[in-house]
Amino acid sequence: MNVLFLNPPSLKNEIFMKEIGRCGRKSVAGELWPQTGLAYLAAIAIQLGHKAKIIDAMATPIPLHSLLELIRKENFDLIIAHTSTPTFNNDKKIVSEIKKVSNAIIGFTGTHTTVLPEDSLKQSEADFILIGEAELTLKELLLLLNTLKAEKNTVFDSQNLVSYASDQLKQINGLAFKSNNEIISTTPREIYPDLDSFPFPARELLPNEKYIMPFFNRKPFVTIIPGRGCPYKCTFCRAGKVWGAKPRFRTPPNVIAEIKEVISKFNIRNIVFMTDALTLKRDWTIALINEIIKDNLKFRWICNSRVDSVDIEMLKLMKKAGCELISYGVESADQSILNNAKKNIKLEDSIKAIKLTRQAGIISLAYFIIGLPGETEETIKETIRFAKQINPDYVNFHIATPFPGTEFYEYAKNNNLLISDNWDDYEEEGSAVIRTETMTPEQLVKYQKYAMNSFYLRPKYILKELISIKSPSDLFAKLRAGINVIKKNIGL
Q: Whole-structure pTM over 0.85, yes or no?
């Protein structure tokens, strides 16, 4: 079979950073994230002997008419499109246009369609949804389609697929599909424990040179997913909706093998470990870091962590292994807001984590959220003061966005706090789809911009950044990123 994995183009020429297990947001400083999740699915297709192609139209912009002509010519049997909440309306339009030129069976994957599979099928012309962790679901779907294609000796489209295979589709767990005028959701798929058994992402199908970020001086980088699943129940997050609540980790030798492939096969030495908290399981983290050091692997890497899961011994070891930046979800300086959001951290944890990270010589990035339940103008001001007090190297203030599938969404909906049901607006960078009990959406946007400017435009901070510049490329990267952030936050 001929399978296309598509990250659809933006009809508004916008760039969104998307990963299958995450919500998706607009690019702020020119960063562009790899489609590693799609590359995992493509690797499954290749492993089964199928022909696979990835088109990342965010990384390599392509006019819609050119995309449609390519799809028409290549005669794909199956198309998997990656979507997210803020891009869903755009992506369903792309699928509708594809339907006009192709007989391919078309499905969606991603967090949005995972939590809203039936609504997504009703609102779009997609034929099916891959729900949650999709590798094994895709594998079974491909096996079924291949068998049917051989038996019936026909090119399958959505109509004859239902005619021939509705009963068989019902046996594939983790799938939602259209059957005549009915939408059927099958039994949820159990989370697969053996991540080592998955083939490495088919990065040879990706435009790897396009994936850049200012931190790596706009040089190519890859994302490596060393584990999946998050046991925490933050009300604003849906990380567990795709990967599950039980953390699963690949073995350190398996991760090391992928790192070596990235370096030797793709000549890339900038890596983001894309997992909710690389430090979640201390013994595993230490084992991975020791493997990196033992094999003398030289590459630059960054990761996410919880503020309550690091210590100075671990951090110093991470620094020795090449870690240059750790992102932390600090969220708020108000303990009651953190408690209501079920973040399960204390303010002291954030203070300590930033301090120890600095002590270890690692750059820190703190994420804050403006507009969570209980937020007031005074709590926002306190959070801004707190950000300056703990003084991480970088910050990002997001506006609280109640993504569907989260407890926060249900809270906002039940308390009449939602001011938009247009998925285009569900984007954390510069727009608000909620009000709080005391604040308007316009106030939340104003304070987000104020918070960013207040932190980054301090003379002391600017001087520190100037002193830290090591090369002309470093200078240009920081200038470009800074200009983009300033333009956004002063409304240019």
A: yes
